[in-house]
Amino acid sequence: MNKLTIKRYCHIKNNRIYVDGELMYAYKKAEGLRAFAKSVYRYLKPSYNRFFKMDEISKLGFLAAEVLLSDFGKSTYYDEDVSIILSNSHSTLITDQEHQLTVDDYDNFFPSPSVFVYTLPNIMIGEISIRHKFKGENTFFIVENFNAELITNHINSLFLTQKSKAFVGGWINQSESDYEAFMYVVSADGSIPHNTIEISRLYKLIS
Amino acid sequence: MVYFRSDNILSSLGTTTEENFTSMVSDKIGIISIDDPRYYPEAFPASIIDQTTLNKEFNIIANKYSNNDSYTKLEKMLIVSIYNALSKTDIDIKSSRSAIILSTTKGNVDLLSSDKKNSYDSKRVFLWKLGEVIQEFFKNPNKVIVISNACVSGVLAINTAAMYIDFGQFDNIVVTGGDLISRFVVSGFMSFLSLSPSACKPFDKDRDGLTLGEAAGTIVLSNNPDPKQQSIIFKGGATANDANHISGPSRTAEGSYIAIKKALRQANINPEQIDHISSHGTATPYNDEMESIAIERHGLENVPVNSIKGYLGHTLGAAGIIETAILLEEMRQNTVVKTAGFKESGVSRPINIIDYNYDKEISTCLKMASGFGGSNAAMIISKV
Prior knowledge:
The structure holds two protein chains of two kinds.
Chain A: E1 5-13, E2 16-19, E3 22-26, H1 33-44, H2 56-68, E4 82-88, H3 93-101, H4 113-116, H5 123-132, E5 138-142, H6 148-160, E6 166-174, E7 179-187, E8 192-193, H7 196-204
Helix pairs in contact in A: 1-2, 2-5, 6-7
Chain B: E1 3-10, H1 17-25, E2 32-34, E3 44-47, H2 51-64, H3 73-86, E4 98-103, H4 127-138, E5 145-147, H5 153-166, E6 172-179, H6 183-191, E7 212-213, E8 215-222, E9 232-241, H7 254-267, E10 276-278, H8 285-297, E11 304-306, H9 309-312, H10 319-333, E12 335-336, E13 352-353, E14 358-359, E15 364-371, E16 375-383
Parallel strand pairs in B: 3-7, 4-5, 4-6, 10-11, 10-15, 11-13
Antiparallel strand pairs in B: 1-8, 2-3, 6-8, 9-16, 12-14, 15-16
Helix pairs in contact in B: 1-10, 2-3, 5-10, 7-8
């Protein structure tokens, strides 16, 4: 059986996108995730109308996957052999707060299904799966801080039990004041060994 | 091998798996009409845990631990459920070889509401913090692993626990799960028009949506069997995504089909060896139809299938765990529980939905789950 490697990784933070540690795109304005995501969409031009229905954190995860998977080589895998294992600390708190505002007051009560559906962190996994036709394993972990060991062990175990051949791992978080994405591809055809030390190192590469 | 050592269900039908099972086989339904503006402006059917009864149960345990801290309703539910499950075993929860995995969709989401905002530390709304509160109560040395993957969280948490034990990461894992009936969740599902006006009717021709439920459940897994009891082991499990829609299932049951296929492959068994299926069975038109397709595509149309959501509603993060606990009790008692609310099939595939309780030798079972985000899960368990 082939060994797993880290094939590609990307960071999105401070309104900048880095692929394999190299700056790919920078948004000059000091605006929040909403405006930044829109500018990245215009830059990447994926022509994908579903994007505009997504909440902000799903947009962040979607865009990270867009830049990460541009050279993935999906055709070499069966749909069911590509898995997505993500994590964060805030779940969907910002979207939760948006939904909560619509139900707090019965004199001003207007819950919306299009907001409510995004109040689950794994909806982002669903969006990436739809876009890239990935039908493998899914898990969303909630951890206080990025936990390289948890995700690395999980991916290795799924690989060893022959559940999946390639993986998208990462951390996609949105808090009240900031956001951060770190996403990577794990497969047999990369050049960096897949282990906790390397994943931790790559996560910290862009500060 | 990974053994199912102990389990618990805390719900409106009781504080143990046995109580819940006995209620179900005596046709007791935990779903009532809730008329409480804290949850929704109008009355709606749901299964809910009585706060006074919960406080009584919790205080007995907190006294044993000399713990005077203040806990939310969900924290109390999870602590009582874990305590009750562990009390039937000799497993040392304080050992570094024991871990806890928590399955929840929304955790202490009620703390977001304007009337509760300042009642607890604001961090309490984070799901990892909920894990930390439980870890500290039981003095477990490992960080609680929190999985939030919509309605498949419970089955996924059990699959994950079994995988970690199999790889020697831990000797014992307590898988616990729970979610609240909250204004957040009730209003959200209401806006989706997915709630039934009466207790839900899984697989029935008149099914008209799901019913929400509040519960906590616990499953204790170990690499060590209990010689005093019939051993039931984890055989295989998988998740799969439909890659089709974020709030509705695949019309071809793609993800569910793949999850079952991978679980069968890991279990190394043929579909003919399955004696009983515990479905997700939410009673929404699309979910039940999709499951009937997945079941038929695997040639399992003659296998007795049930859904227990007609008794306790859809308990979200607890669902996969309490449904597995009932499945384990069905295997121990060799009795299949009927699908409450079901009268006449309303799915297109000719599957064998259980409409009365009966005795049957049960050795190998399939558990199914599906949820928002296109997620699906399957698990196979077996007597040895």
